[in-house]
Amino acid sequence: MMLQVEIFRRELTPDERQIRDLNLRATALKKDDIHTAVDCLRSAQTLARNIDAMPHPIAWWLRLPVFLQQAGNMAAAEIEFNRIEQDIRGGFWAGHGSQASRAYLRALEDKRRVAHEREARTQAKPAKSKRPQGALTIPSGDSLCPR
Questions:
Q1: Rounded CA gap, 61 and 111, in Å?
Q2: What pLDDT does residue 129 have?
Q3: What pTM was computed for the model?
Q4: Which DSSP symbol is given to 54?
């Protein structure tokens, strides 16, 4: 018996293209400008919610709180984690069944735990000095150069 499968790919709508482009930009900006990357993800997710575009996997939705934590805003990250949890328990993903909901909740809790661990490590690090390592502090009026 031979099984034949045909795959059809539809064109993205303008909104879906914008969501894709915002996510690509966020990824590109993550290391150099995390705050703009967060803005891109927030815009993409707002647009996705407005057009009810839920084909994105749970990991896609979890990017925003992770980026927020990396940007130094754990409080905002926790708000996003809570919003996603509410969506899983009774919002967007409610119709996906209990097995999917449990998997989504496990993914959420894993990302939340990692974000909290990363935040704790960040908080435990001493503040970086603006002075290069090994640089000397010279009281004003003094000089290291002989006259």
A1: 11
A2: 47
A3: 0.74
A4: -
